[in-house]
Amino acid sequence: MGVVRSSRWAPVAGWFAATASSIVLSWVALLPVLNAARPDVGTLPDIDQVPAADVVAPVPVPVPLPSSASRPAPSRSVTTPAQPTTPTAKPSKPSPKPSSAKASTEPAATTVDGWTVTTGGDGLRTYLKSFTVKGGRAVIKMTSDGVVSLVTATPADGFAVQRTQSAPTDMAVYFNETNHSFIIHAIWWNDAPFVEVSEIGS
Q1: Residue 167 lies in a domain
Q2: Segment 55-95, tens digit of pLDDT
Q3: Helix (H/G/I), strand (E/B), else coil: 140
Q4: Which of 16, 86, 118, 201 sits CB 3.0–4.6 Å from 180 for a disulfide?
Q5: Which domain holds residue 20?
Q6: How many Cα atoms within 13 Å fall on the side-chain side of residue 158?
Q7: How far apart are the C-alpha atoms of 175 and 131, rounded to whole Å?
């Protein structure tokens, strides 16, 4: 029984020995090639000496556009036209009424011997009268304080006017032509106006 077992394993042991020998021979044959191909064996290089790897910019990924169905519809704002504003009628201002105070301050006029007489607030009376002669027309004014003055003097055709006054209470107006004169002599006399009209020459 022991002889039979040894005879069975003899071929298997020979196959293993041959296979192992071929593996060792193949390894010895490939050893120079592997040594030439592998990198240098030694200490690791410093991290500062290792070249930095190129940084590759990220490639933008296109974002798909939303379809027309998913897009929101643009909102439309409706503007209503402004309603025209009708101008409101402004109330008319009432016409100013004459003030009664002003009317009361105006002196009331009276007529005395053809003179228009007015009295001021200070009590001063004013006398005004127009005189007409063939040589012209004169308007004379007198006041109750005894002042006589000439307002206007208009000569007729061919006449010239001249005024003389010897005192505030005495004045004469001449309408002159060649060898002919009309004289209006006005004075304040006895607290009243006095006028005398005369003619000289022909």
Answers
A1: yes
A2: 444 445 455 555 554 555 555 555 555 565 655 656 666 66
A3: strand
A4: 201
A5: 1-36
A6: 8
A7: 12
